[in-house]
Amino acid sequence: MAGKDIISFGAAVAGDVMSVFIPGAGTVGKVVDSYLDRKQAEVHEILLEELSKGGFHGEIKFDEHDADPLLEVTFRLSKAVAAGAARDNLRLLAQIIAGLKKNKALANDAFQKWSGILESLTRDELMVIGNAAIAQRTVEASEEEPKPPFFKVLEEAMTAGNYQRPEFMALCASVSRTGLLLPASAWGGLVYSPSPWLGELATLADVESLASRP
Question: Which residues contact 102 (CB under 8 A, 6 or more apart)?
């Protein structure tokens, strides 16, 4: 089932449910059509914007050899839309398309990996990933010996963002399912460290900006 068909099917089911439970069922068709139009316009806007500016990589140029992989990754992006991916997630995925092209790695397999990881993340999970990317860069750039512990830097940033420790630990556990953070035993409990995938993601998309969004 194509991405557009999936969205239409889901909207049709939603429309049927709404017609049963919501007064004024005669307007449901218009509501569904309006929703589909908004989602299509949203992903169109985001994709064109990010590819036009090359994500955060600067200008990129596509040629005829990019036609097939670009079609494949765009189709995969449409499935993310059908799955209900939020605007931040879609923007991140559009940046990854640009990043893969910039790195001469634009292929459906590579994009499938990142789409599977990122499309369903919540806003709080994205906040952890953004702060984790900053923490990793901070630790790597530090001239202190020994370098500050990654997990301590991450926890301080999340605490400054009004996340309580139990919530922060739960979010780290949740993000670890993606492979971006790796759990490890430590004195007094668990800590988390960045996986190679986190560094790879930070080269493809502007994940650090996620930490500063309201």
Answer: 54, 55, 57, 58, 60
Burial class (CB in 10 A: 0-12, 13-18, 19+), 193: middle
CA angle 101, 105, 107 (to 5 degrees): 95
Whether the full predicted model's pTM is greater than 0.85, yes or no, is no
Q: Please check whether residues 15 and 114 belong to one and the same domain.
A: yes
Closest CA to 76 of 47, 34, 105: 47
pLDDT tens string 45-83:
998 899 888 767 778 888 888 999 998 998 888 888 877
* Domain count of the fold of the chain: 2
- 167-184 per-position pLDDT tens digit: 999 999 999 999 999 999
Q: Characterize 117-127 residue by residue with b for buried, 16 or more Cβ atoms within 10 angstroms of its Cβ, and e for exposed.
A: bbbebeebbbb
Least Cα distance to 133 among 25, 49, 205 occurs for 205
Domain extent for 77: 3-118
- Tokens representing 184 are 């490890």
> In angstroms, how far is the first alpha carbon of the chain from the final one?
36
